[in-house]
Design brief:
Layout (H helix, E strand, L loop, with lengths): L3 H7 L15 H7 L5 H11 L9 H13 L3 E4 L5 E5 L12 E6 L4 E7 L4 E7 L11 E10 H4 L12 E17 L5 E8 L8 E4 L5 E3 L2 E4 L5 H17 L5 E6 L7 H10 L11 E9 L11 E5 L7 H17 L6 E4 L6 H9 L3 E7 L5 E2 L4 E2 L2 E4 H16 L9 H13 L2 H4 L4 H5 L1
Parallel strand pairs: 3-12, 3-13, 13-16, 14-15
Antiparallel strand pairs: 1-2, 2-12, 4-5, 4-9, 5-8, 6-7, 6-9, 7-8, 10-11, 11-19, 14-16, 17-18
Helix pairs in contact: 3-6, 6-10, 7-9, 8-10
Length: about 450
């Protein structure tokens, strides 16, 4: 075959149905930067400054509970301690409309106090994945001596354990020894030198500065996944303010970092063989996922195709991307990505396992789990504020553009049929292609 033949074939100008990859320049980013409303920033910073760790999410849980109740939203806590908040419009929902929920976890990798070994030595439990070599010598901050949750808000979690306390004074310490590992090979028990006695159950986190915004980013001890929960709070706030005509549920789960405990319990209750009530038809996980070279910060929120464990429901991925493209066509400050984020596993894998249909959104996270891999240090996590704000906007669009159906691939299927019909002659007379093209 001569060299000219392929070039003549290319003159057919066949095109790929998929949209081209968008590469944004610095100038593009400036023009397309979305600045979230001040109230969104306020909500996020208030939540990001609260202490939290697996099974000790009570401070963030209480904040969201009060936020929901103050806006007249139905808020309830299930047997596992997950918080479910429903926005229900005044008008009656369309019969047969699929129920949509967004989900984010309220915990972060961290410690909780177990017992004092002596006046200055605390035994503590660590939960989450983190480089073992950085743990010993790490500076820790505990919140101890606060009021029991059962006294502060008895309606929230009736019969809450005494160890679940709100607020408290700060006590500093330094990890001096690792005591053991869990079955996954992650550190579990540690000994910590502390300034004074710490009550059992007290929350411990790395001793890092409080949350703040600068350089177009949120910086905080616990972005993952409190920022995801804050995005859901802002969604609820906007739905209430605008009296949105569509319902939506927000599921705030517990203890994701230790192994998806809250999500598993929720699925067993609503989708397992012994389910006591049916849960939402669609659940979209909202996460802060480790930034990757192909999914950088600043290029918008991410429609997450899958995680390290599983690929999510294609129907929901196509739907989420369709909503994103509609927003892009209307507003130059909105942009999004559609990527495989396999830096970790998220709750959507749990929902997919139990429901058979789940999707996910996320924003790219820097210093994942407080590990600054460039410097080899413990550091605050960070996310791009424009990415986060556009995440809220994408969620709102998904709540309102509820056109998920089995025909979600209809546009592409129609294109396939038309494209095939148009080029049937290629099957019948392939030898004439090059001549016809010229």
């Amino acid at each position: 075959m001569s060299d000219s033949h392929p070039r003549k074939l290319n003159r057919l100008r066949t095109r790929d149905f998929r949209p081209g990859e968008t590469v944004l320049t610095t100038a593009d980013r400036r023009r397309r930067t979305f600045h979230p409303p001040t109230r969104w920033i306020k909500h996020a910073l208030e939540m990001l400054r609260l202490p939290t760790s697996s099974f000790h999410e009570q401070n963030v849980l209480l904040w969201v509970w009060r936020f929901a109740r103050n806006r007249g939203l139905d808020a309830r806590v299930d047997a596992a301690g997950n918080l479910i908040v429903d926005y229900v419009p005044r008008q009656t929902p369309v019969v047969g409309e699929k129920r949509l929920a967004f989900a984010a976890h309220l915990d972060h990798t961290g410690f909780w106090a177990v017992a004092m070994r002596d006046e200055t030595t605390l035994e503590a439990h660590w939960m989450g994945r983190f480089p073992e070599e950085l743990i010993v010598g790490g500076e820790v901050l505990f919140w101890t001596g606060g009021k029991p949750l059962s006294e502060v808000e008895p309606e929230l979690m009736p019969g809450a354990p005494e160890s679940l306390r709100i607020g408290g004074r700060k006590v500093r310490g330094v990890v001096k020894e690792i005591l053991g590992f869990n079955e996954e090979g992650d550190v579990s028990g540690v000994l910590i030198d502390v300034e004074e006695r710490v009550l059992p159950g007290s929350i411990g986190m790395w001793d890092l500065p409080d949350a703040e915004q600068h350089d177009g980013r949120f910086h905080a001890r616990a972005i993952d996944d409190v920022a995801g929960a804050a995005a859901m709070v802002c969604l609820l706030d906007e739905m209430v303010r605008d009296e949105a005509p569509v319902p939506v549920t927000c599921l705030f789960t517990r203890a994701e970092e230790g192994g998806f405990f809250g999500a598993i319990q929720y699925c067993q209750e609503h989708y397992g063989p012994e389910a006591t009530s049916k849960g939402p038809d669609l659940i979209i996980s909202v996460e802060c996922s480790k930034a990757l070279p192909h999914a950088p910060q600043g290029d918008g929120p991410i429609v997450r195709v899958g995680d390290r464990h599983v690929m999510f429901e294609p129907e929901l991925t196509v739907w989420a991307a369709r909503c994103g493209r509609v927003l892009e066509s209307k507003d130059s400050t909105f942009t999004f990505q559609r990527k495989l984020m396999d830096g970790g596993t998220c709750e959507s894998s749990v929902f997919q396992a139990y429901m058979g249909k789940s999707g996910a959104l996320c924003v790219a996270l820097g210093n994942y789990h407080n590990h600054n891999s460039d410097e080899g240090t413990i550091d605050r996590e960070h996310i791009d504020i424009s990415d986060w704000g556009n995440l809220v906007r994408l969620m709102r669009a998904m709540a309102e553009m509820r056109d998920v159906s089995d025909s979600i691939f209809g546009d592409f299927k129609d294109w396939c049929q038309k494209w095939s019909d148009k080029h049937q002659h290629l099957y019948e007379d392939p030898a004439g292609v090059a001549e016809g093209a010229s």
